[in-house]
Design brief:
Layout lengths: L18 H9 L5 H4 L3 H8 L10 H6 L2 H10 L14 H17 L5 H10 L5 H7 L4 H7 L16 H15 L5 H7 L26 H80 L1 H7 L3 H28 L7 E4 H12 L2 E3 L6 E4 L1 H18 L6 E7 L2 E8 L29 H11 L3 E4 L7 E8 L3 H5 L1
Parallel strand pairs: 2-4
Antiparallel strand pairs: 1-3, 4-5, 5-7, 6-7
Helix pairs in contact: 1-12, 5-12, 6-7, 6-10, 7-9, 7-10, 10-11, 12-14, 14-17, 15-16, 16-17
Length: 483
């Protein structure tokens, strides 16, 4: 608006919307935005509160309380509404809005509501000042502030250049002017190829100050939305409280489940370890007592053979305990791997020869970056596990396959683990295993050492086929091998 006294722009505190639009906004029944979007005053009222919304969509703005609060307050003051916002050019503005929205649909612009709002507000004479002082959204302020500039001059001033071009083309179509070729190129369409006539819309405006029931309606609507918002907040707070309680309960339940699982694993470990270590200790104790009880007989008869045999058993069982403890430390705290380029085929062949089992080598060399000693130990554990499982006349076979990863397969003719045993195959000292398959630490150590290489040991049941354990090792690229 221009002040006739000095010709300077003046911005009113608001531009009063149509009374019927305010009533629709207050009732809030059904989709509100389609029913009020033809009203430039109400569109301005909504957009000035976009900065306070988390949703930034116009239907959500219609449902908010801030526009109603502001309208109620302004209707309590002296009238400052501007009927010239509507007559005589509001019909043209609505035609521009409809055209801009249609062009946006033709080029599949992602924000058709923005195109509508821009078309509705772009030709208001004082819109540039309003946009700046009312802090309207940037997508609107940038365009309306530069609509009088040619397209070639706005690249540094306008972020959404396509929306700028659509607005200028819509204005040119409705006002009967020739479109700018640069605008058509930026929008991605030719205006003369668009067959579209905007609908004719009424230019009526009803003064909200002249409607005595409008202010009580707005007050009631504000209070209803406040109550509804309070109720929603309380419901959300209750839901959050329930959610937190559920999370705490689940955490407590999971903590208890984890504690019980740890205790169960520890009990299983203790039972298995106790069984494995008690066996040689029982032999040691028995042999020591036997030596002690026959000491005088041996001295008198000068018979040393029996005493030597018993002492040999004691030494053997002591070594057995030492081996168990060594495996325990190897599982619990394995040494850091010393990775180096290794000929895997030669390594597997050496293990196969040492255990007297078959090896089906692959074609060509397979070089990996591993700790050779740890992999040799792990593979030896897997082979020993298979040897203990096969019956007389059974067989064990090794093979290597290379794909996205390197796999060493250890197959045997023995019975595979039962389904209930599979989850515990790599648990140290698991007592539920079938006799002869991986007692003690064999599979556990193999798995642990494979993990040290960045690999794994897996068992996959295969109905009707040989039992297979697979050691998986990562493939090393040329750079890693050269390191």
């Amino acid at each position: 608006m221009i002040d006739p006294a000095d010709g300077k722009p003046v911005t009113a505190p608001w531009l009063a919307p149509d009374a019927a639009s305010l009533a629709v906004l207050a009732r809030g029944v059904g989709p509100v935005w389609p029913a009020v979007r033809h009203d430039p005053g109400l569109v301005l009222l909504l957009l000035r509160f976009d900065q306070f919304s988390n949703h930034h969509d116009l239907e959500s703005l219609c449902r908010g309380s801030l526009p109603l609060l502001f309208a109620r307050r302004m209707l309590q003051r002296e009238p400052v509404g501007m009927p010239d916002l509507y007559a005589p050019r509001v019909a043209e503005r609505r035609a521009i809005a409809a055209t801009c929205e249609h062009l946006a649909g033709v080029v599949r612009y992602p924000h058709p509501d923005r195109a509508w709002c821009l078309g509705l507000l772009a030709t208001i004479p004082y819109i540039r000042t309003i946009a700046r002082r009312w802090h309207l959204p940037a997508w609107l302020s940038e365009v309306v502030g530069n609509l009088d500039l040619p397209f070639r001059d706005i690249s540094e001033l306008v972020t959404d250049t396509r929306l700028f071009a659509l607005a200028r083309l819509a204005i040119a179509r409705v006002q009967g002017r020739s479109p700018d070729a640069a605008d058509e190129e930026a929008a991605g369409l030719r205006l003369d190829e668009i067959d579209y006539t905007p609908p004719v819309m009424s230019a009526a405006w009803s003064d909200p100050y002249a409607q005595p029931l409008l202010r009580p309606l707005l007050e009631m609507a504000v209070e209803n939305r406040r109550i509804r918002a309070t109720s929603q907040v309380e419901n959300l707070e209750r839901e959050i409280a329930h959610l937190h309680a559920a999370i705490r309960k689940r955490a407590e339940t999971e903590a208890e489940s984890l504690r019980l699982a740890k205790l169960s694993a520890l009990a299983e470990f203790a039972a298995g370890a106790g069984h494995e270590i008690n066996n040689p200790l029982a032999v040691i104790s028995g042999e020591a007592q036997y030596i002690l009880s026959h000491k005088e007989d041996w001295l008198a008869s000068d018979e040393e053979e029996s005493s030597h045999e018993s002492l040999g058993k004691i030494i053997a069982q002591t070594k057995r305990i030492h081996g168990i403890l060594r495996e325990l430390m190897q599982f619990a705290r394995p040494a850091a791997p010393r990775l180096a380029a290794t000929d895997l085929v030669a390594l597997v062949r050496e293990v196969a020869a040492g255990q007297a089992v078959a090896f089906d080598p692959p074609t060509g060399a397979v070089t990996v970056r591993i700790d050779a000693d740890q992999v040799k130990t792990a593979l030896g554990c897997l082979v020993k596990n298979s040897l203990e499982a096969i019956a007389k006349g059974g067989w064990v076979r090794l093979s290597v396959s290379v794909g996205q990863r390197v796999e060493i397969h250890v197959e045997d003719s023995g019975p595979g683990p039962r389904p209930e045993q599979v989850p515990h195959l790599f648990d140290p000292f698991y007592c539920g295993r079938s006799a002869g398959r991986g007692k003690g630490f064999g599979l556990s150590v193999a798995w642990r050492l494979a993990q040290q290489q960045g690999g794994d040991v897996v068992y996959t049941p295969r109905a009707g086929q040989p039992t297979r354990f697979t050691m998986v090792l990562p493939r090393a690229d040329e750079t890693a091998l050269a390191a």
